[in-house]
Amino acid sequence: MTADTPPVFEADFAAQFDTLLRWRRDVRHFLPTPITDADLRALLETAALAPSVGNAQPWRFVRVRSPRIRAHLADHVDAANAVAANAQPDLDRRAHYRSLKLHGLREAPEVVAVFSDEAPLAGYGLGRTTMHDTLRYSTVMAIHTLWLAARLRGIGVGWVSILDPATVTAMLETPEDWTLIAVLCLGYPEHPSTIPELERRDWQHREPVADRIIER
Ligand SMILES: Cc1cc2nc3c(=O)[nH]c(=O)nc-3n(C[C@H](O)[C@H](O)[C@H](O)COP(=O)(O)O)c2cc1C
Q1: Measuring from atom 2 of ligand 1, which residue has the nearest CA?
Q2: Are 98 and 85 in contact (CB under 8 A)?
Q3: pLDDT, tens digit (0-9, with 9 covering 90-100), for 47-73
Q4: Residue to probe by mutation, ligand 1, list 21, 22, 25, 26, most atoms within 8 Å of CB
Q5: Distance CA 92, CA 97 (A)
Q6: What is the CA radius of gyration of the chain?
Q7: Which one of 106, 179, 187, 202 has the lowest number of neighbouring Cβ atoms within 10 Å?
């Protein structure tokens, strides 16, 4: 196959791709099994196949290896989570919220923070003069690509957003032009499932997509 000869995807592959999408989960419970460097590298390489505005490839990955930073990160998210629990409207909701596990930062074999470069040289500004956020959208595309590539290898990903981006950015000492998009926990899931954990825990069920479409 050459770069100009598109592959023909068979029906079996289409069915498997659909299965992959249905088994992709946000994961907070991880087995201690490590992810190999080769697998992690492959995931980041695959993430970089995502589309990006002007082909700017604004995604930047920070592999968090320091146990000290990891512990600070987990403490910070726990504190932010306690505040978020108190913001729930009533006692029942607060108790329900507190019963949820919303990050695996202490146990996940790998933690990767994903940033978006707000001033990348690549792309020469194409496509973003009127929509600067398209750089961040591009980085989110890379995260989703990584999420699927990970599930394909049996690896789970958990997106952590209950945090103060400025605090986490300071912890990670990243370049000034980088904006934090996500903190990701990666590892082999303890409870693979086709059902989102928040649905299993009766917090929020999936709703029909038909309710989310309007016509003009
Ligand atoms: C932008 C974003 C932020 C998220 N932040 C968190 C988080 O802080 N903690 C958490 O447990 N899940 C987080 N999630 C995961 C969602 O809860 C999850 O995607 C949703 O419940 C549907 O479950 P599924 O991904 O397994 O289909 C986040 C997901 C996205 C896309």
Answers
A1: 159
A2: yes
A3: 999 999 999 999 999 999 999 999 999
A4: 26
A5: 8
A6: 19
A7: 202
The rounded distance, in Å, linking the Cα atoms of 85 and 60 is 31
Amino acid at the residue 146:
L
Mean pLDDT, 10 residues at a time, over the chain (216 residues)? 88 97 98 98 98 98 98 98 98 98 98 98 96 98 98 98 98 98 98 96 96 96
| pLDDT tens column, 113-143 | 999 999 999 999 999 999 999 999 999 999 9
Looking at residue 1, its pLDDT comes to: 66
193/18 Cα distance (integer angstroms): 14
pLDDT at 43 (0 to 100): 98
Which of 34, 209, 17 lies closest to 9, judged by CA? 17
Calculate how far, in angstroms, residue 159's C-alpha sits from the geometric centre of ligand 1.
6
60 close to 117: Cβ distance less than 8 angstroms: yes
Domains and CATH numbers, the chain: 26-201 (3.40.109.10)
For residue 90, the CA-to-ligand 1 centroid distance in Å is 22
Distance 102 CA to ligand 1 centre (A): 8
How far are the Cα atoms of 71, 94, 165, 214 from residue 90, in angstroms, in the given order? 31, 6, 27, 33
